[in-house]
Amino acid sequence: MKSSLININGQLLPEEKTGLSIQNRAFKFGDSVFESIRVSKGRALFLEDHFSRISKGMKELKFVPSFQWDISGFRKEILKTIESNSVKNGGRVRYTAFRKGEGYYTPKSREMAFTIEAYQLEQDQYELNSVGQKITIFRDFKLQNNRLSPYKTNNCLPYIMAGMYAQEEGFDEVLLLNDAGNICEATSSNVFLLINGILYTPSISEGCTAGVMRKKIIQLARKMNIAVLESSLSPSLLEDADEVFFTNAIVGLKWAAAWEKKRYFHKISARLTGALNEII
Fold first, then answer.
1. Helix (H, G, I), strand (E, B) or coil at 238
2. Which domains can be identified in the chain, with CATH numbers?
């Protein structure tokens, strides 16, 4: 397999020669935020939204960029990495911002550094899964609602444990709950429930990630005259739902077919996938 080129602070290096230090704070302490960005036709999608979210996360973590931080430079470095890795159609990018320097829990520096990865995907457009997912609820760990909840950080252990649980128990996806026992999100996605023609999704105040795709789907649904409510969602609502689907920036939408004895449709998720592909 051809080695990928990784962008480290603007310098492109082969993946096996990145030479990241064992003192890297993202590795040692999860002192980082990141964005997963979809590529279509060689172009990174929804960059303004990704830039806005990671910028807010960096501010919360008190990162101090050592270079001019703006959307132009963000786009330039991502495009350079995409082109250098010959991602000409569908692909995915991960932009990771982390705090440089040494120290223990208290860092010696607040200066920020970054890495960018770019990889080819088989599909150029978003494709809805042909077979619906079998889902359940993961109850071993609950997600906490705090000021970092809306952002994607390297502190991912609850999602890792949830993913392993799904794997061990034979499920395609699992729902994670928050401290109040309400539906929060899935292992790597936001969640939507269609109940009597109304689309429900947990509000950001419930502790879920402020997903870029979540935002796009809410906008598209409202343009299609589908009512959307952001609120607290009890797990019991899974019994009332006509559709359940998940969203993230890389896969778009994935629909669920079954929870326990309940079965779901995917008419609205299919319509939304079509509308999504029209705007990329």
1. helix
2. 5-120 (3.30.470.10), 133-279 (3.20.10.10)
